[in-house]
Amino acid sequence: xxxxxxxxxxxxxxxxxxxxxxxxxxxxxxxxxxxxxxxxxxxxxxxxxxxxxxxxxxxxxxxxxxxxxxxxxxxxxxxxxxxxxxxxxxxxxxxxxxxxxxxxxxxxxxxxxxxxxxxxxxxxxxxxxxxxxxxxxxxxxxxxxxxxxxxxxxxxxxxxxxxxxxxxxxxxxxxxxxxxxxxxxxxxxxxxxxxxxxxxxxxxxxxxxxxxxxxxxxxxxxxxxxxxxxxxxxxxxxxxxxxxxxxxxxxxxxxxxxxxxxxxxxxxxxxxxxxxxxxxxxxxxxxxxxxxxxxxxxxxxxxxxxxxxxxxxxxxxxxxxxxxxxxxxxxxxxxxxxxxxxxxxxxxxxxxxxxxxxxxxxxxxxxxxxxxxxxxxxxxxxxxxxxxxxxxxxxxxxxxxxxxxxxxxxxxxxxxxxxxxxxxxxxxxxxxxxxxxxxxxxxxxxxxxxxxxxxxxxxxxxxxxxxxxxxxxxxxxxxxxxxxxxxxxxxxxxxxxxxxxxxxxxxxxxxxxxxxxxxxxxxxxxxxxxxxxxxxxxxxxxxxxxxxxxxxxxxxxxxxxxxxxxxxxxxxxxxxxxxxxxxxxxxxxxxxxxxxxxxxxxxxxxxxxxxxxxxxxxxxxxxxxxxxxxxxxxxxxxxxxxxxxxxxx
Length: 649
What we know:
Blueprint: H1 12-31, E1 70-78, E2 85-92, E3 97-103, E4 110-115, E5 120-122, E6 132-136, E7 139-144, E8 156-159, E9 167-173, E10 179-187, H2 201-204, H3 238-241, E11 247-254, E12 263-274, E13 279-280, E14 295-300, E15 307-310, E16 323-326, E17 329-335, E18 341-344, E19 359-362, E20 369-372, E21 385-389, E22 392-395, E23 401-402, E24 416-420, E25 427-430, E26 443-447, E27 450-453, E28 474-478, E29 485-490, E30 502-506, E31 509-515, E32 518-522, E33 536-540, E34 547-550, E35 563-566, E36 569-572, E37 591-594, H4 614-619, H5 626-631, H6 633-648
Antiparallel strand pairs: 1-10, 2-9, 3-8, 3-10, 4-5, 4-9, 6-7, 7-8, 11-12, 12-13, 12-14, 15-17, 16-19, 17-18, 20-22, 21-24, 22-23, 25-27, 26-28, 29-31, 30-33, 31-32, 34-36, 35-37
C-alpha cells in the first residue's frame, strides 16, 4: 500500500460506544419529536459546491471548510524496469472519494483496475477497454485514453466515490519507466452505510486496518469508585437498555436492468415501514433514521450477440482510373459492465449475419493522357551530332491541356533527343559571278568566291576537296578600247603582320584617269562608281605548327538530372589541313556532362511537417492517406518526388 494510507485502529469497546451513542440519538428523536437528529458524519455524496455561493470549497468538498473533515492521500509512483504483464502498484481503501489516477506522460502501458476479489473493472484479463464510464464498487469510474498522435498526456481514471470495496490499481507494463500520479481523500469520521437496523462492527468499519481515530483519548468501560458507571458514560449493551426504532427504511423494489444483454446495473429502492406490522408508511415517519438513498447493484442478462465492427473505407488506391478501397471488418462481442467494453471473437460467432464487403472498386476521375502535338523538328546541325525536339502535352478527358503532374510521368514520351547526321562531307561551294568587269575598258575579268565547306559555319581544309574539281574563280570580260577611263591603281603589298601563321598586309589604292596615254590621279570619290580593289589581305610567312581546333558545344541533352553535350575537335596545321602533330595531353574533351542539378519540383511554402515523428509515417508507408500527406507534407512530398524520379529513370 502506498505511503500515507495507514488507518487508525479502534478497540471493540470504542466501537460499541459509538453504536450506543448513535442509538441514543435515535431514541431522543422519538421522545422529543421537535428535536431533529443531527448526523455526526459528513455526506460525501452531495455535489461539491452545492449551496456554496460566495465561499471557497476545501479539499474535502466542504463549503468554507478547513480541510479537517478528511485526509488527503497523494503521491507519484516511479516504476523501474519490469517484466511485461500486470503489476499491482496501489491499493485504494473502502470509502475513498475524489479518486484521480493519472499517467504523467503518454506511454504504451495501460492502467488497470480490479476489486479486492479479483474482478476486473478496467483493462482486465488482457482486454483493453475503450474509453468511457464503468460502474463498480458503488461508484462510476471515467476512463480516458488521449489521442494516439496529437496528445502527450497519459491515461487517466477518475471517480467521485465513495467506494464500497477495496480496489487494486495495476499497470499493464509494456514500456520502461512508467510514472503514475494518484490522489484520493478519506473522511476522518466513519460513514455508516446500512440497509437494516442491526449495527455491527463489520457494517461500519472499512475493510482496512485503521489507527488513531481518537488520538490522545482512550475510551474504556470502567466503573467509578462507587461501583457505578460514570454519569457521562453510555452503557455498553444497547439491546438491554434502549428499544429499537418503530420505523425503518427497507429495500422494497428494484428498477429494471440498465441493459438488455451482458452485465448492467439496477437501483434498489427503499420504503419506510412500521416494524411491528411490516406495512408501508409515509416517509416522514422515518426521518429520524438515515435514508440509505438509491443503491446500485450489478444485474446479469443474456450474453450480448456478436456483431460486425466495420471500419472506415480507406482512400482510393489510385488518384485516377479504376482502383480499390479497403476497410476492416471484425467480429466483436460486448462484455464487461454496462455494455461499454468489446472484445474480438471468432468469426463463426457472427455467422447469423452476412459479413460486409472489405474491398470495393473506386474511381476518382478518368486519367489524363500524354499527347504528341507535333512531329520531330529537323536536326539542329546538317552533319555530325545535334538535337531535335517535338511538343508533348498532358491532356485530360475533356481535351484541355493540364499540368504534367496529372499524367503518369513514367510514361511520358520524349520531347528532346539527340540526332546524328553522320560524318560531315566536304564539297566545293561557290558564289554568283560578280556583275562588273575588273576593267572599265579593254580586257578584264569577273570573279566569284570558291570555298571547301564541311558545314554551314565551318570551313574544311582545301585539300579535303579535289583540286581538279574546283570551279573557276575568274572569267574573262571585255568592255572595249579605253578612252578617258577612270580606274583604280594599286601599289605593292606591305609587310605581313604576323611572323608565322596567318597575318594581314596592306597596299595603296588610288583613283587614276587614263586619257591619251596620260595618267592623272583623282580623288577616290571620282572612282566611287567602280569596284574598289581591297587594300588588305591575309598573308602567311611560315608555319606556326599544328594546333587544336574545336567547334562550339551542342545543346545539353537534358535540362536537369544530368545530360551531355558534344563538340568536334580537330588538329589542324596553319593551312587548315589535318595533322597528327598536336599534343594529346592538352586535347580538348569532345563530350562532357551538363545540367547535373536535381530536378526540383515547385516548392510550396505552406507544405511543412506538423509533427516531429513524420519519419515514422514515411517508414510505415502512410503517405498514401490524405491525412498524413497533410500533417507530414514535406516528408511525404520528398518521398513521392523521389519515387517519381526513380520510375522515370
